[in-house]
């Protein structure tokens, strides 16, 4: 900043010198004027290196505003325990680019005549801005003390010091509206044909079939994460289970015993550790017997899951409704669960109690999962929404790139920080 002041002082001195030249001979004045203008241009260029982070046809982005936004990001991330200083170059470049894109869009809105508002719109902006401002005042009042009038005045003064007034909120609302209008203009010609949707469906079916054939776990990962699946391999069945967990204390002991069992070297040691594990599970047998008695009495399995089950995946969501998808080659589940699920001979059957590192599983075979391509009707809505979103974002991105290139931006991130 001191350097900038020094350059400005030199500029003023140059101008004063130019004024003195008015008394010189007329033939010398033109040469002196030319030299003074050249010097002023040189000094202005030097000033620019300290103050301009980007320039484009129609405006500049100042170093000061970039540093202000970067400082805001630093403080925001710091609140969550993150230090972004090592990524400063990335964030600075991104901030500069976003400011240019923001201003270019506002210029485009004016160019297209999209920056005009009706009286009704102006009134709506004012009403919304006042409501948002009043809400902010209420949020900050608790930070001040005094009478109601004093607290209100202190709050409003503080917000004003942060450049937050009803007028600035109106400005933000108008800018958001302009950006929305420009976005709508950019994507107005986007359309999605039935043929494009059909082709994309076929491509996704083929892609899923190939991917799942190469790695079955990709199918299980997709299903368990809730992703849309376009192809289902053969051999999967849907199962539900009632999971009974040991007490917290018993689970800690069980985890320790399982680790010891894995490390045991002699049959004698293994037998001793296994006996301790069996004792823990034996304490759960009364509950297991009670559940099987109720199943044999014809009680609803889903109701028993709700009453006894301790697996969150069976409490809500797709898994609770449709069950877990399991095949003989599954890798998504512990082996004991997979083996137990596949041991049930008929749909509607229930496994014997299955013990695993998680606890005791009582598994019901609820149905087979249809293999092959997912019905188009089941994925059409999702597919259309996904494709349309992709097309609109591509159209907007292409338009924005074109608009920005048209104003010939020059970026100087190295001048910041």
Structural overview:
65% of the residues lie in helices and 9% in strands. It has 16 helices and 9 strands. The protein has helices spanning 2-20, 26-51, 63-78, 88-111, 119-140, 148-161, 166-186, 194-214, 216-225, 248-263, 267-282, 285-296, 301-308, 317-322, 335-342, 376-406; strands at 52-56, 59-62, 231-232, 237-244, 324-326, 354-356, 359-368, 372-373, 410-411. Strand 6 (354-356) and strand 7 (359-368) form a beta hairpin. Helix 3 (63-78) packs across helix 4 (88-111), helix 4 (88-111) packs across helix 7 and helix 8 (194-214) crosses helix 9 (216-225). The two termini are 12 Å apart.
The amount of helix comes to: 55-70%
Give the C-alpha Rg.
35 Å
Structural class: alpha+beta
State the shape.
Answer: elongated
Number of strands: 9
- Average pLDDT for all residues: 90
Low-confidence stretches: 1-16
Order of helices and strands: HHEEHHHHHHHEEHHHHHEHEEEHE
Biggest sheet record = 4 strands, antiparallel
Counting copies of identical and different chains, the oligomeric state is single chain
Number of helices: 16
Question: How big a fraction of the residues is strand?
Answer: 5-15%
State the end-to-end distance.
Answer: 12 Å
Question: How are the strands of the biggest sheet laid out side by side?
Answer: 5-4-7-6
């Amino acid at each position: 900043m001191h350097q900038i002041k020094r350059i400005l002082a030199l500029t003023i001195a140059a101008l004063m010198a130019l004024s003195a030249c008015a008394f010189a001979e007329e033939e010398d004045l033109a040469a002196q004027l030319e030299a003074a203008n050249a010097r002023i241009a040189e000094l202005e260029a030097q000033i620019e290196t300290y103050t301009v982070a980007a320039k484009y046809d129609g405006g500049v982005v100042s170093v000061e505003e970039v540093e202000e936004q970067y400082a805001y990001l630093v403080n925001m991330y710091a609140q969550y325990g993150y230090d972004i200083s090592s990524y400063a170059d990335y964030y600075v470049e991104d901030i500069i680019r976003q400011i240019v894109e923001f201003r270019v869009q506002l210029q485009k809105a004016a160019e297209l005549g999209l920056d005009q508002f009706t009286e009704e719109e102006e009134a709506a902006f004012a009403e919304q801005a006042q409501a948002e401002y009043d809400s902010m005042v209420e949020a900050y009042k608790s930070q001040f003390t005094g009478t109601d009038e004093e607290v209100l005045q202190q709050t409003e003064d503080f917000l004003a010091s942060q450049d937050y007034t009803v007028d600035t909120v109106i400005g933000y609302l108008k800018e958001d509206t302009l950006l929305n209008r420009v976005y709508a203009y950019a994507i107005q010609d986007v359309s999605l044909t039935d043929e494009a949707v059909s082709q994309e469906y076929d491509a996704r079916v083929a892609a899923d079939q190939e991917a799942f054939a190469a790695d079955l776990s990709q199918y299980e990962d997709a299903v368990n994460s809730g992703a849309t699946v376009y192809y289902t391999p053969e051999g999967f069945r849907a199962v539900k289970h009632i999971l009974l967990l040991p007490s917290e204390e018993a689970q800690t002991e069980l985890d320790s015993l399982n680790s010891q069992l894995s490390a045991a070297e002699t049959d004698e040691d293994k037998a001793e550790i296994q006996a301790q594990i069996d004792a823990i599970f034996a304490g759960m047998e009364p509950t297991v017997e009670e559940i099987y008695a109720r199943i044999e009495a014809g009680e609803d399995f889903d109701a028993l899951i709700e009453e006894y089950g301790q697996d969150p995946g069976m409490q809500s969501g797709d898994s609770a409704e449709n069950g877990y998808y399991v095949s003989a080659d599954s890798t998504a589940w512990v082996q004991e669960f997979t083996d137990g699920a596949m041991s049930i001979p008929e749909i509607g059957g229930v496994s014997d109690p299955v013990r695993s590192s998680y606890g005791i599983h009582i598994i019901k075979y609820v149905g087979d999962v249809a293999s092959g391509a997912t019905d188009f009707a089941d994925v059409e809505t999702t597919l259309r929404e996904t494709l349309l979103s992709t097309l609109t974002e591509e159209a907007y991105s292409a338009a924005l790139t074109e608009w920005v290139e048209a104003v010939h931006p020059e970026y100087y991130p190295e001048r910041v920080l």
